Amino acid sequence: MLPPAARLTRSQDFGLVVRRGRRAGRPRLVVHVLKPDVPTLDSSKVGFVVSKAVGNSVVRHRVYRRLRHVVRPRLEDMPPGTLVVVRALAPAADASSSELAADFSSALRTLLTGKVPR
């Protein structure tokens, strides 16, 4: 589980990150990141979007649990106050945890450093 302080729960916050944040797409997921304008001590927050396009309820929850497991250790690598939304795409249903981790790490690295991977 993610600690409560690290969860993005309000619909308005999801909308803000998706509208104003930067986006990086990968084969199995899309990551949106909104860095704070001014330095802050707030913890980074992460939200997940796993729609019915991914699969039935069992499949969606499996993908959600895998994504939570992938994201939790990387919370410390994010600048304080960073807001992240991870949207799973349909291929995430058949992906392993290591594939999801590779996609997430690649997208996050691109968004936080501003460098495009080669």
Would you write up a description of this structure?
With 118 residues, this protein is of the alpha+beta class. 36% of the residues lie in helices and 18% in strands. It contains three helices and four strands. It has helices spanning 11-20, 57-71, 97-113; strands spanning 22-25, 29-34, 45-49, 83-88. It has a four-stranded mixed sheet, sandwiched between helices. α2 (57-71) packs across α3 (97-113). The radius of gyration is 13 Å and the shape is globular. The protein starts with 10 loop residues before the first helix and ends in a 5-residue tail after the last helix.
Lay out the secondary structure.
Layout: H1 11-20, E1 22-25, E2 29-34, E3 45-49, H2 57-71, E4 83-88, H3 97-113
Parallel strand pairs: 3-4
Antiparallel strand pairs: 1-2, 2-4
Helix pairs in contact: 2-3
Global Rg: 13 Å
Termini gap: 33 Å
User: What proportion of the residues is helical, as a percent range?
Assistant: 25-40%
Report the average pLDDT across residues: 93
β-strand percent reads 15-25%
Question: Unreliable runs, pLDDT <50, ≥5 residues?
Answer: none
Number of helices: 3
Question: What's the shape?
Answer: globular
Q: What order do the helices and strands follow?
A: HEEEHEH
Strand order of the largest sheet: 1-2-4-3
Which structural category fits the helices and strands? Answer: alpha+beta
Largest sheet: 4 strands, mixed
**Number of beta strands:** 4
Core attributes:
globular; 118 residues; single chain; 4-stranded mixed beta sheet; alpha+beta; 36% helix
